[in-house]
């Protein structure tokens, strides 16, 4: 794989999660453009730089040791990638402080480098949080490949930061450069809330949560078919989002024990708040992780999953396949994975390669609910 070469460093970087012969690299021309732009300003070692949404640590690892850098984002996988890539390139794995998006930063910052996220609500929340955190003369620079750079990103920067200038294109990447201007103090529109009738729930959704404005149709198809009569089973909601599957399951399985896990810090934050609102002080383990990578083998009886089919802008079933493998490892013999998926994704045949029995629990014109037994 090619090295990321910038005025700050030459780095050998890997993506997270790792896969053999990965055809994709852990950086792109937008990372290179952001680094060259910053280098042209000859920042002092005392310059405080905040990096947002650095998917695999390319920006933070490049700047470590050159400026006072802090990284923040909503991806636990990005945090793992940063640690691995620092260590891979001879730097302490904790050389760059990482602040999950569920927590707040301590300014002031002289420069902010942003990789424009797929979810513009996350960008909006981050720009609002920058209010009062920018030093005099600060600059906020957002970068993206042009095909992933919506006009609305510049509009949001103009609304919350100040005047924006778009750079010339460079290797199909572009920067949006905002200088701090007088702006009224904004109140964040996040988290959002919506209500369900069955089960009767009000769900909180922080800015980067999937289907933030309403229940996604896959979960809607899944909810009526969640397993009942689980007794004291150990149940995991894998890729829990706002926690709705686990909460609905827990309501009809009062003695079961629940683990909710997601790689999004805002999803975990939402799930914790929703669990508490619906189930009070009932115990549950709700945390950010790389799926079930940290789960003990053969420690679960049931796994519930509405798997994703993309990582950032990359579409594919790699993450779903990996979640199915993790579920198989974590389940006891005789345990079961329940999933919902689009019919066209062919999950039945994929699960049949891992599990001894796969049955269709329910179907709609678009979705199937499957049960795979170990």
TrEMBL record:
Pfam families in the record: MTS (PF05175), RLMG_N (PF26049)
Gene3D superfamilies xrefs: Vaccinia Virus protein VP39
PROSITE patterns noted in UniProt: N6_MTASE
Annotated GO biological process: methylation
Cellular location(s): Cytoplasm
Coiled-coil features, chain-numbered ranges: none
UniProt signal peptide: none
UniProt domain Methyltransferase small: residue ranges: 201-371
EC number(s) on file: 2.1.1.174
Entry keyword set: Cytoplasm, Methyltransferase, rRNA processing, S-adenosyl-L-methionine, Transferase
Top EC class of this enzyme: transferase
Catalyzed chemical reaction(s): guanosine(1835) in 23S rRNA + S-adenosyl-L-methionine = N(2)-methylguanosine(1835) in 23S rRNA + S-adenosyl-L-homocysteine + H(+)
GO MF terms held by the record: methyltransferase activity
Domain RlmG N-terminal: start-end pairs: 2-180
PANTHER family: RIBOSOMAL RNA LARGE SUBUNIT METHYLTRANSFERASE G, RIBOSOMAL RNA SMALL SUBUNIT METHYLTRANSFERASE C
Protein's job: Specifically methylates the guanine in position 1835 (m2G1835) of 23S rRNA.
Family: Belongs to the methyltransferase superfamily. RlmG family.
Protein name: Ribosomal RNA large subunit methyltransferase G
Annotated source species: Pseudomonas machongensis
The encoding gene: rlmG
């Amino acid at each position: 794989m090619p090295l990321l070469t910038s005025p700050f460093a030459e780095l050998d970087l890997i993506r997270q999660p790792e896969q053999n012969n990965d055809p994709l690299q852990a950086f792109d021309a937008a990372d290179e453009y952001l680094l060259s732009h910053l280098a042209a300003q000859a920042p002092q070692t005392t310059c405080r730089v905040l990096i947002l949404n650095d998917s695999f640590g390319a920006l933070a690892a490049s700047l470590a040791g050159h400026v006072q850098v802090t990284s923040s984002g909503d991806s636990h996988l990005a945090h793992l990638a940063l640690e691995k890539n620092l260590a891979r390139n001879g730097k302490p794995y904790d050389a760059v402080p990482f602040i999950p998006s569920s927590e707040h930063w301590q300014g002031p910052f002289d420069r902010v480098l942003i990789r424009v996220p797929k979810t513009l609500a996350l960008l909006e929340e981050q720009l609002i949080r920058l209010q009062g955190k920018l030093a005099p003369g600060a600059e906020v620079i957002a970068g993206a490949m042009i095909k992933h750079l919506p006009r609305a990103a510049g509009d949001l920067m103009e609304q919350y930061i100040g005047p924006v200038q778009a750079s010339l294109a460079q290797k199909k990447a572009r920067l949006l450069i905002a200088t701090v201007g007088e702006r009224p103090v904004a109140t964040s529109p996040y988290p959002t809330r919506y209500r369900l009738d069955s089960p009767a729930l009000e769900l909180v959704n922080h800015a980067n949560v999937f289907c933030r404005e309403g229940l996604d149709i896959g979960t809607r198809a899944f909810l009526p078919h969640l397993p009942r009569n689980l007794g004291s089973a150990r149940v995991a909601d894998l890729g829990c989002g706002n926690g709705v599957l686990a909460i609905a399951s827990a309501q009809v399985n009062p003695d079961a024990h629940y683990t909710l896990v997601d790689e999004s810090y805002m999803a975990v934050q939402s799930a914790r708040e929703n669990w508490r609102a619906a189930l009070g002080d009932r115990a549950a383990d709700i945390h950010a992780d790389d799926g079930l990578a940290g789960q003990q083998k053969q420690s679960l009886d049931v796994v519930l999953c509405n798997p994703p089919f993309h990582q950032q802008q990359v579409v594919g079933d790699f993450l779903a396949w990996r979640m199915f493998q993790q579920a198989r490892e974590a389940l006891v013999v005789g345990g079961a994975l329940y999933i919902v998926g689009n019919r066209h994704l062919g999950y039945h045949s994929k699960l049949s390669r891992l599990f001894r029995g796969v049955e269709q629990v329910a179907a709609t014109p678009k979705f199937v609910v499957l049960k795979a037994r170990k």
